[in-house]
Amino acid sequence: MDDLLADFVAETREMLEASEGEIIAWEANPADGSRIDAIFRFVHTVKGNCGFFDFPRLAELSHAAEDALADVRAERREANATLVSAVLRVIDRIVELIDAIEASGACPAGSDTDLIAGLEEGNEDGQLLIGESNAMGLDTGSASPSALGSSTTASTPIQRTIRLPVDLLDRVMSGVSDMVLARNDLAHRLRQAGNQPTIDGPFERLTTILTDVRDAITRMRMQRIETLFSALPRLVRDLSTELGKQVLIDLEGGDVELDREMIETVRDPLTHIIRNAIDHGVERPRDRLNQGKRETALLSIAARQSGNTISIVVSDDGRGIDEEKIAAKAIATGLITEAEHKAMNRETILQLIFEPGFSTAEEVSNVSGRGVGLDVVRENLERVGGSIKVSSTVGVGTLFTLQIPLTLSIIAGLTVEVASQRFAIPQSYVEEIIHASAKSLDCTHIGETSLVTFRGQRVPCLVLAEVLDLPDGEIDEANRSMVMLRLASGDLFALAVDNIHSHGDIVVKPLAPAVMKSGLYAGSTLLDDGQPVLLLDVTNIAALHDLVSDARTRVLSDAVAEEERQEETLPRAMLFTDFEGRRRAFRLELVQRIETAPADAIDRTSASPRAVIDGNILPLIGLPEGPLPSEKVRLLRLTDGVSQLLHAVREVDDAVALIEPLKPVADDALVEAVTLIDGQTVSLIDGHEVFARYAEVPQPAARPLCLLPEGEWASTILAPLVSAAGYDAVPRGTREESEKGGSDGALSIWFEDEFEAALALDMDIAQPVLRLRDHPDAPEGSQTIYRYDREALMSALQAARTPATKGEAA
Amino acid sequence: MNDLLVMAQIAGRRCALPAGDVKSVIELGAITPVPRSPDFIAGITALRSQALTVIDCRLALGFPVIEWATDHRAAVVHVGGHSYALMVDAIEDIATGRTHPENVPGGFGREWARVATGMVETAIGPALLIDMPALIAGPEPLGAAA
Fold it and tell me: Around A213, how many Cα atoms within 13 Å sit in the side-chain half-sphere?
């Protein structure tokens, strides 16, 4: 709450500074109506922000000033010097109160009726009254500074924050990015120059620091939208209590990250819209019950990132917007003519609420204003390239959609390659990646359109090289990869690319207008090596190829989805062909991922083969007898939630529903049942049996453990050598040892005398063991190694590693 | 008129770029082409952490595509909130404009008229002062004038 308060104080100050000039100009010439707007907005915002806090004095003051100014704006009242000075006095008081709030965190008690009375119209003898109030104002004025003084000295300083111009942040940010690139360059040169221990150390440190700084800087600009959301429940609660309504707030998508500046831009509009929704949209509980609705209204606010925009949807289930009322009001205020009205459809009419000077509320309330809100909302959003729309159904509810551009946002992206050039795709669109060779894809050409079959659905397929007018690469059709993209409208299409590269967070930067005009790109980003790549505008590409359905076909696709959902209740299995050409399947729940491992990641030296995937050593089954048929092997990564297992396959077919009955198999423990899929028999592998036999909790490929004897010599002289041999060196009998899994299977090194003593004491000595002796000359038949015989030590350490894995496997 | 000007050769002619518009002169690194963008956009390139749009000035003026050596250096300009790298024949020097930009009788020719502010005299001779936004906008699409 402290942050919120500090924000409030800072914002009020800032606005005041900005409108100070206007105030002075207005004072000089009260008849100049154009000056009022800025002052009006200032008091309006103060009034609005008070909704977050319990500051009745501020709310009263600002509301009174707003009322008076609104009358002037509506030309119900003429501005004169009396009014001007009354308003200025109110603003001064607001500033005093803000000062006090900043110092003590609370609003000092007191009365402002004198000032508020001064604002009232009809005080034609205002001069006298002002005179009086002036005296009273002075009174309180003289009282408060002393009160302030004492509280300032007494209060503990609140968390200090500073406001920085975003330019400066940008400069720091690009400076850090440049530093990263300079570091990469340096790293490259260092590698060329070979190992230089004196430089490598500091360089490593530089790298670590730079990574930290970069993270911090990125965080400096990016903020989760949560920070914006966190204030809303309180706002909604206070507003609904005040208005005698019951509103439940539902927040979604708080983890969407947004440029800090954007969050600031969205803050006010969002508050305005929520206030409007509760004030005008939501009915009183009794009215709701009469209409057969629940007593408690639901206000839901959802943030979603779709492509290059972030949309925030605020919807309520209130009374909706009455189109006729809006139209009548717009005609009455001269916004549109009767003839124009006839030509407008409902949607266009609804958007009129964003026009300046528009309001439908018959009563002016403390909560939402007189239309100052929505036109400012739109203005603010359009200034940053965003937009706002409203749709509403009478009696059902209202839905505001705010669109904010994503410039400078960080999004998860997938890098793809086509014709040797890389492009990025926002990860949020990617439904699945499929290798085109998979039989299940079933590419067909209908006229000029390519279709692929994805989960039993025919899906249009675009070839990225054709979309971009690039030459078709050497990659033939069968070796392409398909990226299945799901649009926000629910439409699915496949994009054929030559290769898939990495995915990771990318910082989207805007493109020049001439490039944007092509409609294919949403921005650019820099890869780790500093090479710029273009971010594809997926929605637009789909729209350019007529792949975005309208509402009618969306209903159809919903029906398809419904069918799919029914299919989903059936058990599903991952169908594959093993190296013996048999069609087999795993239950889909067991399959965590499909991996492709290079042959050298597979260790077949021991009885049970293993493969290293993501730094984990996993048991591997299903390999063919004899050499591997190709350099890369497709692996199904199976998991039961804890332990894991890899199954090598010749080909991954598809995920299928198990429609036909399962016929249990008795003679093969590894097969759970046989079933028919597309008219062919498939054996479904028994997950229980396979996991019982082969699965293991993944061990980090990291290092086997080596337990060292105690003592200075072991920790300073022996340990580095052991580490260099690829072991994790840990002193024996320490806490560290038990944390790292104890002595099971670990190599332990003993000094000969200690070892003998241990044997004599009948201690439990874990195998394997390496014994060291102090003298170069070994006694006959000794299995010890002289402790400075580096070669013998190293080879013993090496040798101990291989049998260790064998031992484990047995 | 004592404005600093960056002198460059574009399409074999001496041109002057207002030094105030030119933020720096960089060595052009690898250029990532932008498929299906107008011809005069050579691609994007990275200047440190920034992405620059590379403009081929000859094509931007509307001259036909022919082999022509370009400088390995490019002038970086900032127009309308975006940064561009200008590919020119050669970047020559920095000079002081001695006169106000003037028109010459007969004009500067079809391609040049659109981007020309006028002729300026400098220490190394007369040059055509270029209007940056007009140059960046690229040649008008055929038939747009009609």
Answer: 16
Residue spans of the domains in chain B: they are: 4-136
- Which of A189-193, A279-283, A359-363, A448-452 has the lowest average pLDDT? A359-363
d(CA A19, CA A123): 27
| CATH assignment, A2-154 | 1.20.120.160
Size of interface A-B (CB pairs under 8 A): 73
Q: What is the mean pLDDT of chain A?
A: 76
Fold of A226-405: Heat Shock Protein 90 (3.30.565)
Helix (H, G, I), strand (E, B) or coil at A564: helix
The nearest alpha carbon in chain A to B85 belongs to: A512
Query: What residue ranges in A464-590 does DSSP mark as E strands?
Result: 481-486, 492-497, 499-507, 521-526, 532-536, 572-577, 583-587
Fold of B4-136: OB fold (Dihydrolipoamide Acetyltransferase, E2P) (2.40.50)
Which residues of chain A from 165 to 224 reach within 8 Å of chain B, CB to CB? 173-174, 177-178, 180-181
Angle (CA) A499-A505-A507 rounded to 5° is: 105
Q: Does domain A570-699 have CATH number 2.40.50.180?
A: yes
Q: From CA A535, how far away is CA A407, in angstroms rounded?
A: 12
Q: Report whether pLDDT(B74) > 60.
A: yes
- Give the domain A703-809 fold: Rossmann fold (3.40.50)
Number of H helices, E strands in chain B: 3, 10
3 state DSSP class of A789: coil
What sign does the CA torsion over A693, A694, A700, A701 have? positive
The number of residues in chain B equals 146
Q: What is the 3-state secondary structure (H, E, C) of B42-91?
A: EEEEEECCEEEEEEEHHHHHCCCCCCCCCCCEEEEEEECCEEEEEECCEE
The fraction of chain A above a pLDDT of 90, given in percent, is 1
**Helix orientation angle between A372-383 and A36-50, rounded to the nearest 10 degrees:** 100
**Is some CB atom of chain A closer than 8 A to the CB atom of B34?**
yes
Query: pLDDT at position B85, please?
Result: 93
Choose the closest CB to B48 out of A178, A468, A520.
A178
Q: Which of A392-401, A796-805, B16-25 has the lowest mean pLDDT?
A: A796-805
CA dist., res. B43 & res. B84, Å (int): 10
Of A392, A22, A511, nearest to B43 by C-alpha is A511
- Rounded distance between C-alpha atoms, residue B110 and residue A683, angstroms: 76
First to last CA, chain A: 61
A385–chain B Cβ distance below 8 A for any pair: no
The two beta strands, A769-773 and A784-786, are: parallel
Residue in chain A nearest B79 by alpha carbon: A512
Contacts of B138 in chain A (CB under 8 A): 514
8 Å CB contact of B136 and A532:
no
Confidence at residue A408, expressed as pLDDT on a 0 to 100 scale: 52
Does residue B26 surpass a pLDDT of 70? yes
Structure tokens that stand for A494 in this block: 């496949």
CA distance A639 to A590: 5
Cβ <8 Å between A514 and B136: yes
- What is the C-alpha separation between A472 and A565, in angstroms, rounded? 38
CATH of region A414-557: 2.40.50.180
Q: Are A311 and A401 in contact (CB under 8 A)?
A: yes
8 A C-beta contact, residue A369 and residue A353: no
Q: Could you tell me the pLDDT band of residue A517, with boundaries at 50, 70 and 90? A: confident
Q: What is the 3-state secondary structure (H, E, C) of A300-323?
A: EEEEEEECCEEEEEEEECCCCCCH
The predicted-structure confidence for A577-603, as pLDDT tens digits, reads as follows 888 888 888 887 788 777 777 777 788
Q: For residues A88-99, give the mean pLDDT.
A: 82
pLDDT at A608: 80
